[in-house]
Amino acid sequence: MNNINRRILIIIIVVMSTILGGLCIYRYRSVQTYNRLIKTANEYMEKGKYDESLELLQESLSYKNDDKVKNSIEVAKKLKEASVIYNHGVKLMDEKKYLEAINEFEKITKEDDKIYEEAKKKIEECRKVYEALDKKNNKEDENKSSKTITPDSACDIVKKYVKSDTNINFRYDHDETKKGVQYYVIQAFEAHPDHITTIGWYYVDKNTGNAYELDIVSNSLVPLK
After folding, report:
1. Which of 92, 161, 208, 212 could form a disulfide with 101 if both were Cys (CB 3.0 to 4.6 A apart)?
2. 29-80 confidence digits (pLDDT tens)
3. Each residue's pLDDT tens digit, 139-191
4. In this predicted structure, what is the pLDDT of residue 184?
5. Is 204 helix (H, G, I), strand (E, B) or coil?
C-alpha cells in the first residue's frame, strides 16, 4: 500500500471514529435527557402538578417513543380532570353546599388513585356536617312547633310591638282566616266609664306568632316591627 492510500485510509478511519463518537455522545445525552424528563414528570405527578407533568411527558416522546410514557400521559390527563372536580367540590364545601359537594366528589373513581381517597374523606366530612345541621334544624322546628300560640299569648305578642303613653288594653276578639292562614284577631282599645274606643285591630298567625296590623283602608295586613 502506497503512502497516498495509507493516508486516505487513516483519514477515513478518523472521520468514521469522529462520527461514531458523536453518535454515541448524542445517544448518551439523549438517554440522559429522556431519563431526566421522566424523573421530573413523575415528581410533578406525585405533587399533583399535572400540567407540568404532561408537558414533560410529551417532550420525552421526542427522545423515545415509549408506550409506557403514552400510558402515563393518559393517567395524568385523568388525574388532572379528577383534580378539577375535587377542587370544585372543596369550593362547594366552603360555600356550605354539602349535598352538591358530595355529588362532585362521587364523580371521582378508584382509578384516580390518591384523589379518590381524599374525595372519600371529604364525602364523609360533608355527610357528618350536613347531618349535624339537619338535626339542629329539625330540633329548632320542633321547638317552634312546641310553642303553642294561644289567644292570651297572642295579646302579649301584640303588646310588645304596640307601645303608647295612653292606657291601651288588648283582648282576643275572634279567629279569622286570610289567604289560607289562620289568625287570632286582637282588639286594642281604651276603656272609658261609659264606652270603649278601639285603637286598632291586630292579627297574630296561630302557627308562627308573627303579628300584623290591619290597614282598614286597604284591608291588608302590615307586619309589626
Report:
1. 92
2. 767 888 888 888 888 888 888 889 889 888 888 888 888 888 888 888 888 8
3. 665 555 546 789 999 999 999 888 766 688 999 999 999 988 999 999 999 88
4. 96
5. strand
The amino acid that residue 75 corresponds to is V
What length is written for the chain? 225
Of 156, 153, 141, residue with least CA distance to 206? 153
d(CA 115, CA 125): 15
Helix (H) or strand (E) holding 38: helix 3-46
DSSP string, 60-108: HTTT---HHHHHHHHHHHHHHHHHHHHHHHHHHHHTT-HHHHHHHHTT-
Give helix 67-94 / helix 3-46 axis angle, nearest 10°. 20
The Cα 78–Cα 86 span in angstroms is 12
- For residue 39, the 8-state DSSP code is H
